[in-house]
Every structure is written in C-alpha cells, then in structure tokens.
Design a protein that fits this description.
CATH architecture of the largest domain: Orthogonal Bundle
Strand order of the largest sheet: 1-3-2
Strand content: 15-25%
Mean pLDDT: 87
CATH topology of the largest domain: Arc Repressor Mutant, subunit A
Oligomer: single chain
CATH class of the largest domain: Mainly Alpha
Number of helices: 6
Radius of gyration: 18 Å
CATH superfamily of the largest domain: RNA 2'-phosphotransferase, Tpt1/KptA family, N-terminal domain
Number of strands: 11
Structural class: alpha+beta
Shape: globular
Helix content: 25-40%
Low-confidence stretches: 1-11
Number of domains: 2
Distance between the termini: 40 Å
C-alpha cells in the first residue's frame, strides 16, 4: 500500500511540476495571470488562478514540488510569497542573471534525429531565451531522454567558447545558459 501511495504522489508531483512549467515559462495568460518583468507572480494569485481554471493545487503540493530532489525548476523569492521559473521561458522576462565563467566542459542532451541540424547549425535557443547546458553527462542524458528518440549527449567546449567571447549564465538551479553553441564547439559523446 505504501509503494502505491508513493507512486501516486510522485505522479501527482510530476503533473503539478509540468503544469507550473507551462504556466510560469510559456503561457501565464492561459490561467489569466501576468508575470512581472522578472518572471515573478504572487503565489496566492497563482494558486487562485489555477483553481479557477480547474487545476487546483494546494500550497502543500506546491511546497512539495519546490522541495523535491532533482531539477529545481522554480524559485520562491526571499519572502516565499512570489514564485518564478529559474529558466526555460518562451515569454519575455529578464531573470537578472550576470555573465559567469563556465566550467571548461558542459553537456547537452538531445536525440539522434536532431544531430544533422545541430552538426550544421549548432545549438540554438529557438523559442526560448537560452540554450540549456548541464555540468555532467548523466544530467544531459536524463534531459535528452525527455525527447522522443535515441538519446545523444553532446560535449561543449565551454572554455573555448568563453575565451572567444560567448557569454554564459548560471541559473539558480545549476543549469548553464548561453545564447547559442556553434557546431565547432560541439563533440558527440554518445
């Protein structure tokens, strides 16, 4: 019985996280809210709007997602009264991140089907604000596994990119961000 309850709680937590990611990264208007210029929204306003749109979650469920191990997609402000996504936005926000010197090597998970385009064009942010990069191969593989198809991990020569003037930013959850990765800085790992 405990195992079934744990599985149910995990599925519920994943569903809440996905719902929040959609609203806080891509479509806050879908539930009638607006993010401020930095991507923040009042927690009570968010919870009320979710409930009005038939997707109620409690503050306890929200806190469970915020404190779950693994990806930390969201952040509370210092007061705990506002929330935003760490990165991954397709709506205009200014996260206020300052450029930082990245580790020498970073990783990106993708699919084999995307390799031809990546080989010629590199990695681009597409509709999001940045390309997302991981500090280790295992995390990149996990990210790549969310897409359909055989997972491929790419190694990025971040040290050479930084030396060439490309800017990197570190999100609050440890994800490295950059505007693009040209193909000459990529190498296939698997």
């Amino acid at each position: 019985m405990t195992r079934r309850r744990d599985d149910s709680a995990l599925k519920s937590s994943v569903a809440v996280s996905k719902r929040l990611a959609y609203v806080l990264r891509h479509n806050p208007a879908s539930i009638g809210i607006a993010l401020d210029d930095s991507g923040w929204v009042d927690v009570d306003e968010l919870l009320d709007a979710l409930a009005r749109h038939g997707r109620p979650i409690s503050r306890t469920q929200l806190d469970a997602v915020m404190n779950a191990p693994g990806k930390r997609r969201f952040a509370y402000d210092e007061s705990g009264n506002r929330i935003r996504a760490h990165q991954g936005h397709s709506v205009p926000v200014d996260l206020g991140l300052m450029p930082e010197l990245p580790p020498a090597t970073l990783f990106h998970g993708t699919t084999a089907a995307a390799l031809e385009d990546i080989s010629s064009e590199g990695l681009s942010r597409r509709s999001r604000h940045h390309v997302h990069l991981s500090v280790d191969e295992a995390t990149a593989r996990q990210v790549g596994s969310r897409r359909r198809g055989a997972v491929v991990v790419l190694e990025i020569d971040a040290a050479a990119m930084a030396a060439a003037g490309y800017l990197f930013f570190l999100a609050g959850n440890g994800v490295w961000l950059t505007d693009r990765v040209p193909p000459n800085y990529l190498r296939r790992r698997s």
